[in-house]
Amino acid sequence: MFKRIMPAIDGSPHANRAIDHAADLANKYGAELILLHVVAFPGSAHVPHELHDVLRIAHLNPTKADILRRVAEDLLQQGEMRARQHEASIVRTLIGEGDVADSIVSHAKSEGVDLIVMGRRGLGSVASILLGSVSQKVGHSCECALMTVM
Q1: C-alpha neighbours within 13 Å on the C-beta side of residue 133
Q2: Which tens digit of pLDDT belongs to each residue from 83-107?
Q3: How buried is 51 (Cβ within 10 angstroms: 0-12 exposed, 13-18 middle, 19+ buried)?
Q4: What domains sit in the chain, N to C, each tagged with a CATH number?
Q5: Other CB atoms closer than 10 Å to residue 17's CB: what's the count?
Q6: d(CA 46, CA 101)
Q7: Are 138 and 125 in contact (CB under 8 A)?
Q8: Helices 100-111 & 134-141, crossing angle to 10 degrees?
Q9: How far apart are CA 127 and CA 129, in angstroms?
Q10: C-alpha closest to that of 92 among 14, 22, 15
Q11: How far apart are CA 102 and CA 82, in angstroms?
């Protein structure tokens, strides 16, 4: 029934449960699991003020985009380990950028995803409450099945 399942993750407890459900389904159907994390605002060359001293001492000069990418890579690595604990055997990771909902829908289409799995709530800001949740936006825009988990 499912050949490609894509949990969209952000490190929240709901996203972790999305990984669990998606990995169980991937194991059941022998589907490929594509973990996606979207960096909402890829950043600029500006590094937050709080990190300047630490970076200077360590002789590092990463940009905000570099830091966000490293966080994304860590989240995906942890997500992959979690998926493999649920016996998902074919696991890939992707990092998207930009508007979260648009990026999820775009990646689902380009990857030929049959099912998107995501938490009903994530780590979004107050603005996301006013504008509507990411899961709602994805549900209105995607061309495949969507499962939201609590």
Answers
A1: 10
A2: 999 999 999 999 999 999 999 999 9
A3: middle
A4: 4-99+124-149 (3.40.50.620)
A5: 17
A6: 25
A7: no
A8: 40
A9: 5
A10: 22
A11: 26
CA-nearest of 78, 70, 79 to 42 is 70
Q: What pTM value is reported for the model?
A: 0.81
**58, two tokens:** 């360590």
27, 109, 41, 43 alpha-carbon torsion, rounded to 10°: 90
Residues of 87-125 as b/e, b for ≥16 C-beta within 10 angstroms?
Answer: ebeebebbbbbeebbebbbbbbeebebbbbbbbebbebe
pLDDT digits (tens, 9 = 90+) for 21-30: 999 999 999 9
